[in-house]
């Protein structure tokens, strides 16, 4: 099976959305001084690769650990819209996106992760595209950029109101191009919070042929 990690590594100083608290990862105990190693992490739930739950921008009390776990696992659909500044509705998406799937949007913007323009010049989803995701009852939409929209966050709220989760800051989405059918596993922490950092992977649903070895 081919497994592609769509997650940015958590590290000290991991870039955060402007205005959010910084990520601090410290080596709090060392083997040489303490006889064992330990690390301590201070991180907001929207740093790096993470999943936004509806409580993030709606006045509700459902925390992400209360979302049914099957919503984080499903058949993946890749939309290759590299270099698009706006991701809009296209009639072809009607056939491409099955109901209850997980949609991964590849714009190529993820290559800018870590630079200032990653947050200031990211693509956006249109309300018409969001309406398609809602109608298809998509479980989750994954983005290789930091947010589907900007203030006042209309698309966020449209999706949340209709139980569509949002995964932001995905890595390596270009590696999904041309791999054929794949499954997405996007597991948040089991945490009493509005949203959660997450480990998100894609894996092919068919075995990858083994190349014959040389004689």
SSE pattern: EEHEEEEHEHEHEHEEE
Query: In total, how many domains does the architecture comprise?
Result: 1
Helix content: 10-25%
Q: What's the rounded overall pLDDT mean?
A: 95
Proportion in β-strands: 25-35%
Major sheet summary line: 7 strands, mixed, barrel
Q: What sort of overall outline do the alpha carbons produce when their principal axes are compared? A: globular
Give the strand order, joined by hyphens, for the main sheet. 4-10-9-7-5-11-12
The count of DSSP E runs of length 2 or more, i.e. the number of strands, is 12
Q: What is the CATH architecture descriptor?
A: 3-Layer(bba) Sandwich
Q: Can you tell me the CATH class?
A: Alpha Beta
Describe this structure in words.
- This protein has a seven-stranded mixed β-barrel with strand order 4-10-9-7-5-11-12.
- Helix 4 runs parallel beside helix 5 (154-161).
- Residues 209-215 have low confidence and may be disordered.
- It has helices at 31-34, 93-96, 116-120, 127-135, 154-161, and strands at 3-5, 24-29, 38-42, 50-52, 73-80, 86-87, 102-106, 124-125, 140-143, 165-168, 182-188, 196-204.
- The chain is an alpha/beta fold and 215 residues long.
- It is globular, with a radius of gyration of 18 Å.
- The chain has a single domain (3-10, 45-204), classed as Glucose Oxidase, domain 1 (3-Layer(bba) Sandwich), CATH 3.50.30.50.
């Amino acid at each position: 099976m081919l497994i592609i990690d769509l997650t940015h590594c958590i590290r000290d100083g991991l870039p955060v959305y402007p205005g959010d608290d910084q990520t601090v990862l410290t080596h709090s105990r060392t083997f040489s001084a303490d006889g064992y190693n330990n690390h301590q992490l201070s991180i907001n739930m929207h740093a790096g690769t993470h999943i936004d739950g509806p409580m993030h921008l709606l006045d509700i009390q459902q925390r992400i650990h209360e979302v049914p776990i099957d919503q984080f696992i499903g058949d993946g659909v890749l939309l290759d819209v590299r270099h698009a500044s706006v991701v809009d509705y296209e009639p072809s998406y009607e056939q491409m996106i099955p109901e209850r799937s997980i949609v991964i949007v590849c714009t190529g913007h993820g290559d800018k992760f870590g630079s200032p323009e990653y947050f200031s010049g990211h693509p956006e989803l249109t309300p018409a595209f969001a309406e398609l995701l809602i109608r298809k009852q998509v479980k989750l939409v994954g983005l290789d950029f930091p947010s589907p929209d900007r203030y006042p966050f209309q698309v966020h709220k449209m999706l949340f109101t209709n139980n569509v989760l949002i995964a932001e800051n995905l890595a390596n989405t270009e590696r999904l191009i041309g791999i054929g059918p794949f499954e997405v596993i996007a597991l948040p922490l089991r945490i009493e919070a509005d949203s959660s950092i997450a480990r998100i992977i894609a894996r092919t649903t068919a075995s990858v042929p083994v190349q014959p070895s040389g004689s």
